[in-house]
Amino acid sequence: MKISSGQMPQNVKRFVATGTNLVNLILLACNIGYGILFWLYDADVLFYYICVSSIFFPFVCGMLKKGKKWTYIITVFLEIFLFMILAVVYLGWDYGFQQYCIGFVASLIFTNFYMSRERKINRTTMIIVIFNVLLYVGLRLWTYEHPYVYIIDNEILVKCFYIFNSLIGFAFLIMYLCIYSSTVHRLENSLTEMANVDPLTGISNRRKMQQMLKSVLEEYETQQYQTVIAMLDIDFFKKINDTYGHDAGDEVLKELAKILRDKHDEDEGFHVSRWGGEEFLIFYERHQKSREDIIEEFDMLREQIEDTVIQYNGCDIKITVTIGLSFYEKGETIESLIKEADKNLYIGKSAGRNRVIS
To answer: Is the pTM here over 0.90, yes or no?
Structure first.
């Protein structure tokens, strides 16, 4: 998940895009339902307000279609806000319209946090949030002295009003909390991936490989496995950069990583990582193979790389690699294994390159 300054996260964008039409339909249905009920129970002021609100509803939706999102948001907010105040003043506290304040607070904080460049709640939003809290308290105090203007003589309907309006108010809070937790979860996964994956080649980086080696070799303390660490280095890589440019060098690294990744996909015990620069570290665990078989397998990998032609800007680039191996013996440390593989790698370099040394 990508989150950049001043940009809404993709999962939130998808939610907004797919949910706006549904919200509009729910608002229209609520207007019609409330209008009928207020007309039946002679709540004239509320009925007339609903009628006016319904007349302007197509205009509000038109603003959204034209891309005027803030006009749409502010208009809808004010329409519901005024309706909430009128409903509490005329009907009283028992109908639950005051619970919309909870939805307003959640909506304000959520919208401001995700649409602001600083990713923080600004002063204006905090003032409006405080105002909504004070309004909630003020409406409660008002209804103590002025319980109601209109009476709906239907106890079941009154309870249904309260339950429905309470659900609406808290639904916004719950919905935004779910979206926020989902966003945080995806962001954590993204950061974890960034911390463990080499951005150029897409394979594990040094940090991830070190973690894997530590956890696996601790398990090997109680069991005996035939396991090898391989340090692989591209021969004359500097010459490739000097001849074809650094972009060509990057292409070589990506193609080599692809070959190693394909080998990883074929063989469950083959783990690869970019160790640094043009070096790759391979952790290969084969429980049933002899040392000779493993050395032969790495030599076949070396030949496969040698036979690969990498095309870049019309040029055919061929590379060779030198591989140093170290075999795990019970009680060895990660550091000693890597040091042994690195030593064998440089022995191979000194001996003429393009070979496997164990």
So the answer is: no
Catalytic annotation present for 292: no
Contact partners, residue 346, CB within 8 Å, separation at least 6: 324
User: Which CATH number fits the domain that encloses residue 288?
Assistant: 3.30.70.270
Does residue 213 share a domain with residue 190?
no
Q: State whether 188 and 214 are in the same domain.
A: no
Locate all alpha helices (DSSP H) within the chain, ordered by sequence. 10-40, 44-65, 69-91, 100-115, 123-145, 155-196, 206-220, 237-244, 246-266, 291-307, 334-350
Contact yes or no for 283/213 (Cβ under 8 A): yes
> Distance (Å, rounded) from C-alpha 320 to C-alpha 357?
14
- pLDDT tens digits, 106-146: 888 877 776 666 667 778 888 888 998 999 999 999 999 88
| pLDDT for residue 1 | 38
Contact 310, 251 (CB under 8 A): yes
Containing structural domain, residue 268: 206-357
Separation between Cα atoms, residue 251 and residue 258, nearest integer Å:
10
The catalytic position among 278, 296, 303, 340 is: 278
Same structural domain for residues 124 and 223? no
Counting the structural domains of the chain, the total is 2
Task: Read off the pLDDT of residues 267-312 as tens digits, 9 standing for 90 and up.
Answer: 778 899 999 899 999 998 876 788 888 999 999 999 999 999 999 9
